[in-house]
């Protein structure tokens, strides 16, 4: 009992560890990059909301623009992820990854055009 080491059986029983290992082993790099961007957008939205709640909402239209931009970009990126995921190839037969990225880019441009106009 001098040193308790985690046996391979208990290491494989940890659900978070096995989920992380499966994610790293089975997820293509393209999807990991999109997931990192989604994580950044989620953190950005949380920080903006916390700032609004804890500090001030003085330029309220600026908060709404920033938060709306973050949520809209998250939705567009999640849509891009679902379209370029190889496991969803059957659902998106007519959409190539290049077309999905073009839709994402055009949607982002339109979204940010409206956000910029909302700022005033």
From TrEMBL:
<keyword id="KW-0472">Membrane</keyword>
<keyword id="KW-0256">Endoplasmic reticulum</keyword>
<dbReference type="GO" id="GO:0008250">
    <property type="term" value="C:oligosaccharyltransferase complex"/>
</dbReference>
<feature type="transmembrane region" description="Helical">
    <location>
        <begin position="100"/>
        <end position="119"/>
    </location>
</feature>
<dbReference type="Pfam" id="PF02109">
    <property type="entry name" value="DAD"/>
</dbReference>
<comment type="subunit">
    <text>Component of the oligosaccharyltransferase (OST) complex.</text>
</comment>
<keyword id="KW-1133">Transmembrane helix</keyword>
<dbReference type="InterPro" id="IPR003038">
    <property type="entry name" value="DAD/Ost2"/>
</dbReference>
<comment type="pathway">
    <text>Protein modification; protein glycosylation.</text>
</comment>
<protein>
    <recommendedName>
        <fullName>Dolichyl-diphosphooligosaccharide--protein glycosyltransferase subunit OST2</fullName>
    </recommendedName>
</protein>
<feature type="transmembrane region" description="Helical">
    <location>
        <begin position="36"/>
        <end position="56"/>
    </location>
</feature>
<comment type="similarity">
    <text>Belongs to the DAD/OST2 family.</text>
</comment>
<comment type="function">
    <text>Subunit of the oligosaccharyl transferase (OST) complex that catalyzes the initial transfer of a defined glycan (Glc(3)Man(9)GlcNAc(2) in eukaryotes) from the lipid carrier dolichol-pyrophosphate to an asparagine residue within an Asn-X-Ser/Thr consensus motif in nascent polypeptide chains, the first step in protein N-glycosylation. N-glycosylation occurs cotranslationally and the complex associates with the Sec61 complex at the channel-forming translocon complex that mediates protein translocation across the endoplasmic reticulum (ER). All subunits are required for a maximal enzyme activity.</text>
</comment>
<dbReference type="GO" id="GO:0006487">
    <property type="term" value="P:protein N-linked glycosylation"/>
</dbReference>
<keyword id="KW-0812">Transmembrane</keyword>
């Amino acid at each position: 009992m001098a040193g308790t080491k985690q046996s391979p059986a208990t290491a494989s029983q940890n659900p978070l560890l096995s989920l992380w290992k499966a994610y790293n082993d089975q997820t293509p790099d393209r999807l990991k990059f999109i997931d990192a961007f989604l994580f950044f957008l989620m953190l950005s939205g949380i920080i903006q909301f916390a700032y609004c709640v804890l500090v001030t909402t003085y330029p309220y239209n600026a908060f709404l623009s920033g938060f709306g931009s973050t949520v809209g970009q998250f939705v567009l990126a999640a849509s891009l992820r679902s379209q370029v995921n190889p496991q969803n190839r059957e659902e998106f037969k007519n959409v190539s990854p290049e077309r999905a990225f073009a839709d994402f880019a055009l949607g982002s441009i339109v979204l940010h055009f409206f956000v910029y106009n909302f700022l005033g």
